[in-house]
Write a structure and sequence with these properties.
- By secondary structure, this protein is mostly helical.
- It is built from 13 helices and 4 strands.
- α1 runs antiparallel to α13 and α10 packs antiparallel against α11.
- The radius of gyration is 19 Å and the shape is globular.
- The N and C termini lie close together (9 Å).
Length: 353
């Protein structure tokens, strides 16, 4: 376990060292208010919740103080991602100013974020409008935040909207034939673009669904639908898992490269689903965790991570995405390790031996 803890420390330390580095890739630098950083911030918060280590909260407080003072970005799906950690932090600290920021942002999601047909949250980003498009990414980047704010504020309308978005995205993105997820759906063309089952796109549901079920605690039909959709996806993911424990960037395509960040998020979702009694997915999750940890170099850099990826029209689009060190690669591996520890403690053995 000491080696495993050392890996955790190195993974997050490498990311935090990017503060102030002018020549750092904007997907790796911690000093941006965007989705890669939002993933890492949430992982840091979950580590605090698990370990009680106040250093993690101090890191978050310093980051939000610094970035808010620098000026908030334009609101969109991806810039909403850091708000998930901020909502938890503001609740924990009783910080009224930060809670006011979260409340105003949640109101924007409800009333002003662009919508598709059927009131879907359009996947608008900092550089793409994506009119009429649903992406799996939106669930983790925006909908989890809205669900958390519904829980904090006791706003039934916010909670209901978060539930609706999970159900609507599942309606259009879950492939009924395979159980896997498509990356996106366009109402303008009424298709799934290239019809690709992209690993990290699938991971946003695998990891996002377990978080939603824990944060929102839905009951009845909503819980049953999301849990059954997750179980179906986990069965399909298990069937196409590589012997290394990782998943190919195009699921089921053994000639596409193995990708670490999606594999880490899938491992997290599988291990957490097992711990919560949602799915029989511990063995596949442990195998994936071993594969992910094998991709962490001696300096704590998570390797084999595909760069930011828009929806593509063909296989070549996804194969052409370069591999790079990223904040979300670090963050998703760190996130995964929260559940690796949890499952290891419960079982009395480490899956990362």
């Amino acid at each position: 376990m000491s080696t495993q803890i050392g890996i955790k420390e190195r993974i997050i330390a490498r990311l935090l060292e990017t503060a102030g580095m002018r020549d750092c890739d904007d997907h790796f630098s911690i000093d941006r208010w965007e989705w890669p950083q939002g993933i890492a911030l949430y992982a840091i918060y979950l580590d605090y919740r698990k370990t009680g280590n106040e250093a993690g909260l101090d890191t978050l407080r310093a980051w939000f103080t610094r970035r808010i003072a620098a000026g908030l970005p334009e609101r969109n799906v991806n810039t909403t991602a850091p708000l998930l950690a901020l909502a938890f932090l503001a609740e924990h600290d009783g910080n009224a100013a930060w809670m006011d920021l979260c409340t105003a942002w949640a109101e924007w999601v409800m009333t002003a974020m662009p919508r598709t047909e059927e009131r879907g949250l359009q996947h608008i980003t900092s550089n793409l409008v994506n009119e009429g498009e649903l992406w799996a990414d939106t669930l983790f980047m925006t909908v989890l935040f809205l669900a958390k704010m519904g829980e904090i504020a006791g706003r039934r309308d916010w909670a209901d909207e978060a539930a609706y978005q999970f159900l609507l995205h599942a309606k259009y993105l879950a492939d009924p034939e395979s159980g896997l997820w498509f990356h996106g759906w366009t109402f303008k063309g009424r298709n799934h673009f290239g019809g690709i089952h992209w690993a990290r796109g699938n991971a946003w549901f695998t990891a996002g669904a377990v978080e939603y079920l824990e944060i929102a605690r839905p009951v009845g039909a909503v819980r049953s639908f999301i849990a059954e959709t997750l179980r179906s996806q986990i069965r399909a993911l298990s069937a196409v898992q590589d012997e290394s424990g990782l998943w190919n960037t195009i699921l089921g395509d053994g000639k596409s490269y193995l990708e670490t960040s999606g594999s880490a998020a899938i491992a997290y979702g599988m291990l957490k689903a097992s711990r919560l009694g949602i799915a029989d997915s511990r063995a596949a999750g442990e195998k994936a965790a071993r594969g992910v940890l094998a991709k962490v170099d001696g300096n704590g850099i998570v390797t084999g991570v595909s760069h930011g990826t828009a929806v593509g029209m063909d296989r070549e689009h996804y194969l052409g995405i370069r591999l790079s060190s990223t904040a979300y690669g670090q963050g998703l591996a760190y996130l995964m390790l929260q559940e690796v520890d949890g499952d290891a403690s419960r079982a009395g053995t480490s899956p990362c031996r």
